[in-house]
Specification:
binds guanosine-5'-monophosphate, three-stranded antiparallel beta sheet, binds magnesium ion, 178 residues, six-stranded mixed beta sheet, alpha/beta, single chain
């Protein structure tokens, strides 16, 4: 078991909280063109949990619907390249979908979900990720909203795990093996 106390902190709890508020402000400007009750926020589990909760509360509308989809591609620190998903989502036809994930890496997760959701004919599809590693991209994808762009590090905390550990850290740290 790695000792997280020695991991370098990339973003503190305070930096995260501040950036989430700013990001929510940016996203709100985009969403206020639509009726609140046509907006569906879709989170990609499990990594998104902290960001999703903070973001929804910061967006501050009681009318948004929230849906969760389970998806996984990482085994340990390595992307398997294959996306596994379970999807029992509500009807999103003619809805405004805000698709939210923790981090964009190769871009495969977002790209495949965007394709998957577009087939269901939403009125608009907007994407948001708290972190982005643009140097790791293998498929073309640029999120509409990003919290922070970061270099190529494997990070944990604020919902992000390594084989299910370190998810509950309040800050975001660079993972190091023993
Ligand atoms: P992509 O499909 O863009 O390669 O990967 C996206 C998913 O891989 C993210 O939703 C996240 O779950 C996982 N992932 C990518 N980079 C990292 C990272 O640095 N740390 C952790 N914990 N997960 C990551
Ligand atoms: Mg994820």
């Amino acid at each position: 078991m790695s000792d997280y106390k020695n991991f370098k902190i990339l973003f503190t709890e305070q930096q995260i909280a501040l950036r989430v508020q700013e990001l929510a402000g940016e996203i709100r400007l985009k969403l206020e063109k639509f009726n609140p009750d046509e907006i569906v926020v879709v989170g990609l589990l499990k990594g998104v949990i902290f960001f999703l909760v903070d973001l929804i509360r910061a967006l501050g509308s009681p009318d948004y619907h929230v849906e969760l989809i389970t998806v996984s591609s990482y085994q340990g620190q390595h992307s398997s390249g294959k996306i596994k998903m379970t999807d029992k989502m509500c009807n999103i036809r003619d809805k405004v979908v805000l698709l939210v994930d923790d981090i964009v890496d190769t871009g495969r997760t977002f790209a495949s979900f965007v394709n998957h959701l577009k087939m269901r004919e939403p009125k608009e599809l907007i994407t948001a990720a708290f972190l982005d590693k643009p140097s790791r991209r293998e498929v073309e994808f640029t999120p509409d909203f990003v919290g922070y762009s970061i270099p190529d590090h494997f990070v944990v905390g604020y919902g992000l795990d390594c084989d299910e550990s370190h998810r509950s850290l309040a800050d975001i740290r660079i993972y190091e093996k023993d």
